[in-house]
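yo

u said u wanted the structure for the complex thing, so here. seqs first:
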Amino acid sequence: MNNTVSLGCLTNGSFALVTELVAEGLTRRRLLDLGLVPGTKVEVIRRSPVGDPIAFGIRGAVIALRKEVANKVLVNPL
Amino acid sequence: MGLTSQSTGRSTTREIFNIKRNNNEPVIALAGNPNTGKSTLFNALTGLRQHTGNWPGKTVLRAEGSFIHNGRRYTLIDLPGTYSLLANSADEEVARDFICFAKPDATVVVVDATCLERNLNLVLQVMEITSKVIVCVNLIDEARRKKLRVDADKLSKKLGVPVITTAARSGEGLPRLMDVISDVVWGRLTPKPKLVRYTGEVEEAIARLEPKVRAAVGDGINARWVALRLLDGDTKLVQAMEKFLSEKEIVRVAQEVLA
Ligand SMILES: Nc1nc2c(ncn2[C@@H]2O[C@H](COP(=O)(O)OP(=O)(O)OP(=O)(O)O)[C@@H](O)[C@H]2O)c(=O)[nH]1
Ligand SMILES: [Mg+2]
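structre next:
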């Protein structure tokens, strides 16, 4: 049951549940404020042409995150 | 210190924010997540009595207007949409500084009825700064279309502040919203926000810090909230306090804590 990956690695159209944030300070705060608390369901919506940033569906809003930041969110793919 | 510096501090702060007001008109702020209908609500309430202006030293546009309710005029400020008030971006800083330092007579937090949960984070944050909060659950028509029911009374009891449902685009609920705004402004209704209680360790640290903060800034700014932000290592808030409060003592207290 241990298939935890970082959010930035998922393909478009996939869903995952947040398990943990590996960021600290302001970045952590920002991710929490966007609603990325453990247990939250996230959808990978699309990528910009260069693959970064990535648009995610989080609690009813579409939010773009830089890949570097998205990778600080650990998830279990659904 | 004391009353005089408080009251002058407040009016100078409002001057810094460039609010044009006559005869001590009450100032109402509209806060909320992006895309919750703040500007639509703003336009519906103010009609054509609006203009956009610039925040001092910032390029963030904001709109200011006014509306008249029961013969009294109210100034309305449309703040930028944010998910948080913790000042990670220019928009968040503008919204936070306004609520914190311009001290509106009431802050209406506009939330999206179709995704309430994500919106309540900001509501809780605003409630930590000011008690004069009204929650406006907008897009209630969209919620109905999606067969979502919002129990405004229950939400109001849980939060401790008034909750009004609206559909700003069609004008539904706006007379009631204005009634409640005026009730809060004129003290006929006193919101009693139910604040987040943190773990014992954090609450103890707050309890130790809060009196020091209060001694340094008086009632110019919510001492519990400042204590929390200092414990979180928020240096930007200290910079903002240096800018907006004439009281320098807080900077010393803050440096002590952050050290
Ligand atoms: N159905 C419905 N649509 C609404 C309502 N209020 C606003 N809208 C629509 O929602 C969209 C966003 O409205 P805005 O007023 O621009 O939202 P905002 O909160 O000012 O957005 P930001 O300034 O970007 O944070 C617009 O298309 C509005 O027409 C409402 O009560 N019902
Ligand atoms: Mg707007």
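The longest strand of chain B covers residues 61-69. The longest helix of chain B spans residues 200-217.
cya
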